[in-house]
Amino acid sequence: MPIRRTHTKSRLGCSQCRKRRVKCDEQTPQCSSCVQRGESCVYLRFPTKSTSITATKIAAPPVNSTSPSEAGTCQDSPAPSAIVQNDEEDALWSPDRVRELELLHHWCLRTSKDFTPDLVDLFQDYLVKVALKNPHLMNALLALASFHIACETNDPATSRDFTSTGMGYHTRAVAGLRAVLSSLSPETCDPVFASSTLIMVCVMISPFLPVGHSRTFNFTAEAILPLADILRGLGLVIETSQRKVQQGPLSGIFNVAWPSLPHSTVSPILEDLRKFNASKSDSATAPIFEHAIQALQKKILDSTAVFPWIALAGLEFIEHLRLQNTVAMAVFMVWGALMHMADDQWWARFSGKNLVNETSTILSAKDDDFAGIITWCRREVDLSERP
């Protein structure tokens, strides 16, 4: 009777094959599966002396049951407890676990430092400690770290990979935040406020990443409109426990110095918006757009962050923006340019530039009269003057 060969299961496959639970041919530097799928191939386990010995013992062919050497073979076989221990170790160092550690490492070394120097200690130390006790905040933190990597990389496959990862964490962060909002108290305001802030940033940048919202929205920039609701929610958190948040460890967020814009640079563009509003809007819509323009002008005059303007523009303005009204889109595009110019944050520059790029492309196809404003906005965000 032919000897039956024992199947050996390799634990040395690449992280992508292990994540998909498919057999890896373990070719280096990239396995065949990753080459075919165009994915980055990462090996997290390498053969060691003990691994080779264990594999040899497991694969040892069985001998005749009457042979005295059977006892020696059985004694050399790994005990069930050893197999369980190996499985537990594999679970501990699963691709998802390694990815989380990678993201937390990136947050501490890069993302936390790329907001503003005044907030490095807050984001690098305090926020991580609070996140360890609040899953919704940890998910928001890991989501933003994922998006940060996706924004920085020049490799499309890597950008898609980390965007997909970030979307998963972002979804869990939003669900977790909704669950705790029903029992908001002064003690939970810090993590809730921090989660809301990070989710707000995620909403700003995620529409412009490779895994976007093109199937859901008429134009990608529309996906950031829920930001208005998030900002209003932040206002409710502050109203509920204003003293606790503004006088606690998170107080530094309220004291960030935002760069001021020369009014002489921006004023002519705002006046152009008003002229278009007067010539292209009817008596019902003109006051709606004027309110949005005034709110944007106030942000500039007060030298405060520009991005919260979307929460002040009004629900009627947002509805006209969804309908792609040309005046509303022009105001929206100028907001994107001003974010890029004034807010001095990597995520504001990224989203502002992409917002201008997409909105100007749509607007230029709708109405040539806006060519001057389009040119100004694109020039301010370092794009070519015409789409």
TrEMBL record:
Annotated ranges, domain Zn(2)-C6 fungal-type: 13-43
Family annotation (SUPFAM superfamilies): Zn2/Cys6 DNA-binding domain (SSF57701)
CDD domains: GAL4 (cd00067)
Gene Ontology molecular function terms on file: DNA-binding transcription activator activity, RNA polymerase II-specific; zinc ion binding
Assigned keywords, A-Z: Nucleus
Protein name per Swiss-Prot or TrEMBL: Zn(2)-C6 fungal-type domain-containing protein
Lineage of the organism: Eukaryota, Fungi, Dikarya, Ascomycota, Pezizomycotina
